Amino acid sequence: MPAAQTFFGYPEFRYGCDPKRRTVNLGDNIQSMAVRRLLEYLGVPAEDIIGVDRDGTRDYRGPRVKLVMNGCFHDGCFPLSPDIEPIFFGFNAERDTVVTHNLALFKAHQPIGCRDAATCDLLRKHGVAAFVTGCATATLPRRSGAPADARPVIAFGTGPGDLPARLFASMPKPLLETARLVYQREPVATIPLPDAEVARLESLAAKYLAVYQQASLVVTPLLHVAFPCLAMGVPVVLARRDHADRFTAIDRLLPVHTPANLDAIDWAPVPQDLRIVKQAMFNTAASLLRGSPPAADDARTLQACYEASPVLNPPKTEGVLARFLMGHVRR
To answer: CA 232, 211, 134, 85 torsion: positive or negative?
Structure first.
């Protein structure tokens, strides 16, 4: 008998674990789109790529799937269905118990590619080999340039995703007067989300990505606005009410401003060249899909980028990061 076909999966977000939810963060849809694009870039045929509900990974029953575990995973996602082979790339543990209750799983698939340094440190503390890949949204393609009529964009959410109130007082007046506001949450009526609603939200997320891609500057507290914009070569100001653990990868690429240092914001930041980081991420994802650890050069590049000290001041020229990484990898 021929072997059963193995599919490749990306996380979908239907929120069945949270039946009282009334709005959703479109950053989750942007993550889904980025993982799907990553798989396509690596040569996986579109017909072999399927979505797997992040909140249904324990109960999944379907074709055998290699699931790219990019995103935040909670206790209810585990133990994984026997039909899922996890590919840990861009993995974030919502809390310590995700790791401590599933040590055998993580040790069986180590090294674990983490979305942030906090998750990486947690795994290492419990004897699991781990490294930081960053988020799959950092692999989105770079734009060719900003249009002549580009406007600034302010993209925000709610709770931790709201902007510090004092930020608006420190913004240059022309920026504030010309900026387009994007609220990156969307009301939903039915939980868990049906297929049509998942498709609608992904279409809306794609429209927001197109807005960010055309911006002269994006000001945001949101991880899945800042990471895609960095990838696309859009200048970013990342300003939040706090510096959460989820930001312990992107803070190696640009400053995370909080109310304590809003006066230090550079309102004319330059975009960074992530090509070297992206290539290491592509290569590493390909290795993990083959069941192999990352190559030594790719591991060194990711370590030089994501395990460096947090950035306190924005780079003044576009190629600073690329030159630093190139020099580090050649040593």
So the answer is: negative
